[in-house]
Amino acid sequence: MESFAAPSDETVQAVNAWLKENGVEATPATPAGDWLALSIPVSKANALFNTNFSVFHHVESGTESVRTLEYSVPSDLQGHIRAVHPTTS
């Protein structure tokens, strides 16, 4: 994961408030706090990101991955959240 500068206080407050409102706890995944780690059921991720995660099968390797083709975050957070991973990769 690419690391960026530490997020602004406004970003930290906005993202943490949204997560808390949705019953989600996150922990910093990098020293700068620019990535957060969270572990939630797929059903909660579907609701949180207004999406539908599915299991994708890679035929050649036989591996399976839970991913989605698209996701969204609330409009007031779009300037604060650059990416949600893993989602579409």
Assembly category: single chain
How many alpha or pi helices?
Answer: 2
Largest sheet: 2 strands, antiparallel
Tell me the β content: 5-15%
Helical fraction equals: 10-25%
Q: Look at the structure and give the mean pLDDT.
A: 92
Q: State the shape.
A: globular
Residue windows where pLDDT falls under 50 for at least 5 positions: none
Total number of beta strands: 4
Strand order of the largest sheet: 1-2
Give the topology string: H per helix, E per strand.
Answer: HEEHEE
Q: Any overview of this molecule?
A:
- With 89 residues, the chain is an alpha+beta fold.
- Helices cover 22% and strands 13% of the residues.
- It has a two-stranded antiparallel sheet with strand order 1-2.
- The protein starts with 8 loop residues before the first helix and ends in a 22-residue tail after the last strand.
